[in-house]
Amino acid sequence: MSVNVTKAYLPPLEEYVGYLEGIWERGWLTNNGPLVQRLEAELSSYLGNSLVQFTSNGTIALQIAIKALELSGEIITTPFSYVATTTAILWENCEPLFVDIEDRTFCIDAAKIEAAITPRTTGILATHVYGYPCDVLAIEDIARRHNLKVIYDGAHAFGVQVHGRSLLSYGDLTTCSFHATKLFHTVEGGAIIMQDKALARKVWLYKSFGHIGDEYFSLGVNGKNSEFHAAMGLCNLPRVESFIVARRQLAELYRQELAGLPLQFPQPHEPSLAYNYAYFPVLFENEEAMHRVKDALGAEEVNTRRYFFPSLNKLPYHTGAACPVSEDASVRVLSLPFYQDLNPDDVRRICTLIKKALS
Ligand SMILES: *Cc1c(COP(=O)(O)O)cnc(C)c1O
């Protein structure tokens, strides 16, 4: 039987229909409706009272974030992320300056950031890769000393706690994606998470065409999300902790079954991390071994994903400086099937196939 690499959770249909009945009664479908407001309030309390703006996706959240922090010139960023991290920078007419990653966490190497800063650098945009935190304290310190803004792409980081607070509460702001493939999803959706009220108002205006009624304040775009998407979020949010528990058990099973093989897993620095088990990536010894496993699993209808590939300094439409650690990781990494209701027997079967392919 075929196995997907991710699978979106769908709540009991009656529960979602309950929200639909309310939408039908009110006839209020979008534009900051009551379910959007409620989801924003529930997300805010889940994230330790950060200010939350729900957006139509995680990519527009990144673009609005760059605009709202008035970044220009160069933005220091990671080459090991989903392509949207880099394209958001290019779309906002800024230049991505790639700084290589750490080989343990696959996040940007904070120790290499300072050497890359130039007089044209205005900000840092870093991704918490697979939900493992960037070195947020070191990055905060660098940003303060060089007067740079910090954006985190937290698309993988929902539900992660570090140093006793939500990982999404760090930086000048953090963006999130609630796409159907993510741990917590609203079908399509995203958010901008911040602490500063004036900034939150600016973000709200930017996502709402920059005007309130007949009063026009700023440039804007349509980054809003709908009542239907908020309803999915309200169904799924109370289940996030149970998703994490189920995923932790599956991750432990994978680790047990794969023990002793020539593989590498990400290793977070922070021992007190409360991790969300967003993905299950493995690094093989070389690209050839990765392909051998990918093909062997594919032949049994087990889907995997080269996540992330390519290293973003190698995109055909934008070439950045060499980043050897990222380039090497991107050709060896494979994300294995991983979602909360993945059958443990499938995990065992996948691991047997991997062992055979590597033997
Ligand atoms: C999914 C993802 C995005 C894009 O989010 P969308 O909601 O699909 O627009 C951006 N960055 C990272 C790291 C992602 O994983």
UniProtKB/TrEMBL annotation:
A GO molecular-function descriptor: pyridoxal phosphate binding
CDD domains noted in UniProt: AHBA_syn
Picking any one GO biological process from the record gives: polysaccharide biosynthetic process
UniProt entry keywords in alphabetical sequence = Aminotransferase, Pyridoxal phosphate, Transferase
Q: Which InterPro entries match?
A: DegT/StrS_aminotransferase (IPR000653), PyrdxlP-dep_Trfase (IPR015424), PyrdxlP-dep_Trfase_major (IPR015421)
Q: Which Pfam families match?
A: DegT_DnrJ_EryC1
Q: Which residues carry this modification: N6-(pyridoxal phosphate)lysine?
A: K182
Q: Does the keyword Iron-sulfur apply?
A: no
| Residues annotated as catalytic | K182
**At the top level of its lineage, which domain of life is listed?**
Bacteria
Q: Which family does it belong to?
A: Belongs to the DegT/DnrJ/EryC1 family.
What is the name of the protein in this document? DegT/DnrJ/EryC1/StrS family aminotransferase
Q: Which organism is it from?
A: Hymenobacter cyanobacteriorum
